[in-house]
Amino acid sequence: MNELVKIAKHIYAGEYQLLAGAGISLDSVNINGENLLSGRELEGLIKNVKGVDGDYRLNDLYELLDEREVELFLTKGFTVYEPGKTTMKILNLPWRRIWTLNIDDALERGCDAAGIDYKSINFNDIYSDVLPGELQIVHLHGFVGRSGDGYVFSLGEYSRILHTPRPWFEILAESISTEPFIICGTNFNEFDIEYYLGFMKDSIRPEAIPPSVYVNPNIGIVEKKSFKKKWGQYRTKVHL
Known about the structure:
β7, α9 and β8 form a beta-alpha-beta unit. It is globular, with a radius of gyration of 18 Å. It has ten helices and eight strands. It is an alpha/beta fold and 240 residues long. A six-stranded parallel β-sheet has the order 5-6-4-1-7-8, with helices on both faces. Strands 2-3 form a two-stranded antiparallel sheet. The protein has one domain: Rossmann fold (3-Layer(aba) Sandwich), CATH 3.40.50. The protein starts with a helix and ends in a 9-residue tail after the last helix.
């Protein structure tokens, strides 16, 4: 049986978890009637508003925002009115659990539209088991529905979180080393994606467990070589 067919079979059997980045939400529309911004676009917006020149990443630029700007550009800017086709296609699959690096609520609005029972979980919540028929959506960087808990965009914030017992981070680190994942909508520019993928490096899985798959239709030569060197086999494109 073709490897992709085998992977698809396991996905439809509900064996895979999803780790998703901003790419899955870009065709969703926010409450202002605008498509959600990519990381690069958000960087450009902040640099323009703050009058910053130079090649700074989002985790540095985020520190420049005051409370009003966080509310305007992040909380309101990433509150979804209409989930995009990408989100809806993803929700057609029976995921064991969805982990997201996104602060938007596209997945939640998609579940509402599709009639899917779900539970939103923030990075600082206590652990809870998955209930039968329930989809857990775990937000690793914060969530517009819980804006009062703050967002995790800077390395300093992320470092503080990692030094504080957080069960969801520990569960992800353990799960990604022993269970099958689809990783999509993100790339190595995410400041913490290498941290999680690092747990895959030395893991030894039984043959019966299907492989994890990194989905990136635009992967470049440098990224491809880096991925193969660090984490073994790669796949340039997978249609779900």
